[in-house]
Amino acid sequence: MTVDDVRADRPADAIEYLRTDPDLPPVGVIDRSPITPAKKALFAGVAVVGAVAWAMIAIVRGEHVNAIWLVLAATCTYVIAYRFYARLIEYGVVRPRDDRATTAEVLENGKDYLPMDRRVLFGHHFAAVAGAGPLVGPVLAAQMGYLPGVIWIVVGVVFAGAVQDYLVLWASNRRRGRSLGQMARDELGVVGGVAALVGVLVIMMILLAVLALVVVNALATSPWGVFSIAMTIPIALFMGVYLRYLRPGRVSEVSLIGFVLLLFAIVAGKWVGESGWGADWFTLTPTTLSLLLVGYGFLASVLPVWLLLAPRDYLSTFMKVGTILLLVLGILIVRPVLDMPAVTSFAGSGAGPVFAGSLFPFLFITIACGALSGFHALIASGTTPKLLAKESQARMIGYGGMLTESLVAVMALIAACVLDQHLYFAINAPAAATGGTPDKAAQYVNGLGLAGPPISADELADAATDVGEKTMISRTGGAPTFAIGMSEIFHRFIGGESLRAFWYHFAIMFEALFILTTIDAGTRVARFMLTDTLGNLGGPLAKFKDPSWRTGAWIGSAIVVAAWGSILLMGVSDPLGGINTLFPLFGIANQLLAAIALTVVLTIVVKKGMLRWAWIPAIPLVWDLTVTMTASWQKIFSADPRLGYWKQHSLCQAAQDAGTLCLTAKSPADVEKIVRNTFIQGTLSILFAVLVLIVALAGARVCLRALRSGGAPTTEAPEEPSRIFAPSGFVATPAERAVQHEWDELIAAGTIRAPGAAR
What we know:
It is a multi-pass membrane protein. This is Carbon starvation protein A. With 759 residues, this protein is mostly helical. It has helices at residues 3-9, 37-60, 67-94, 103-106, 118-129, 133-141, 146-173, 180-188, 190-219, 223-246, 251-274, 276-282, 286-302, 309-334, 346-349, 359-366, 374-380, 394-417, 421-428, 431-434, 438-446, 457-466, 479-490, 500-536, 550-572, 578-607, 615-637, 645-658, 668-709, 734-748; strands at residues 15-18, 28-31. Helix 9 (190-219) packs antiparallel against helix 26.
């Protein structure tokens, strides 16, 4: 089909072709075709199914709710939100123009800036943002019941998380890929900007350390998982070289090759893990794994983006999306019921075994990724805008990518809630409570007042044996719970009992893939932020502003990995259980980071005179500030030693002075570590809250000034005409295929170079 054929097939004003050079084909296509009656009926049907599913979950319920209703409620809501609410944001705020060159096209250097195929970029972005959060947070929050979690995950992503990701990507692209901290500095002024820069950098170190800690907990003493994860690195390197030099533009071809190699790595991991030499080489201690992760983060940050980062993230996306879709299929076939009640007693008491704190505010910071995550804003203003080929692709990648991650969070919540309640709490309660043995753990969880028959020590031991593990007691961190819940669903429709252990270890490797891709992209983004900040200081440091200065990239990467690596090692050796003490700080820091991002976006919207649409970022910002400031207040000032960092610190400081033990410490050395760690965590809690309040007040001041003057200048980069073409959505429309054919002919003739190909 040619462009003329498309014109003849549509009304005269339905299709608009954007041109910037009379000698080249169009660089963009605007399709204004009205929605057809068939599509209207389809969306109406989706809305009805979604409404019925929500009614079954929240109103009808009954004694046991089938997990199918959670899947239907979530997916139907996503479809409606993407089609209508995301379009409203695109129409009112983003207003994309594909005849305007993106950051990737203007600054293309083959290393950090590169117009990338939208499908590969979607894979990279989704892999980068979908880390530990959507897997760990919902699993931990399941102690409060399934209903609060699923409501926050789905409603939160539609009106908060996806909005933030989409608008930050839009704002960063219009500013030559500036990082979140640098945009805050440019838009909020010196005081607010400096507070944002410092806050973003420090928070980023906490986020990366906790993400790495989850990887360490999942892979420690697991040779199968370590080997399979390690093999994704050479596979990604091969894919990067293949796509850039051997067969440029052959995305489908290299995708198939990479997928086959990935499956082989998973199967080979089982053989290696069961061999004598494999067990010796790939059974690693938490400390060794931590050091290897630091080294990997450094390399991923300094190597060209096309060589390791993008292909590895794209490769892992096959694994991620494929596994989640398979899990959805498994739920539809197996139809498991949720053993966890809609709302548990721990939601009100705040005395949950998994983490302390009441439903408000701690549910909303425990479930961050999947609903609202500030970390996403760092990716949306880090690597992704430097790879975006067309402005119109931002909706699919920013809003659509976050909806996909939200589905992951729903699957994690289901995996936790289909387990027997007693088993769930035996896995997730700290060792100090369970005693670490089947007998003591059974006695502990049977005393929690849970519904259903009590669990025996033999049943707890069998749960570990069934998945090929020595123990599942106090395997905190969320990853083991998700894995055992996933194996519970998978083995019932593929393979039976004989494959239960396989599916458990498959899930562990799947989770590690999720998280590791966040660490590599996050380290690179942190390097961008750090070099931007150093460049602001001027003098000899001004050279750090040059994104192509490789020495600066190496220096910045080394500082970043040293910072988050030291916090990781602190968490690995924490007597209170690194994930138990660091994850609340992680959640608060993550949501405070989202407050910074939403403040920057709201300020930009108001300064551009879009007051009519300011409510879109303002509503999630007000909610986020309310939640995070309440949680910060409790973590800082609470007199409950299960909740307050400073209360824990004072108790152990007194014990250290008296020469006794405190809390879960088993030795004087443990007491010393708790005193040190709680001081650091308490201090960081105060620092984060103060910095974010400064940013919020600075944003309010700038917005009020802009309102009084009817708008204000922003720091958008000058427009430059685009000279490349790329479809807007995942599947090209007939009009886009026709234009793409014209460009392909010019590329084949050697007249022009394919976007992203080697120079």
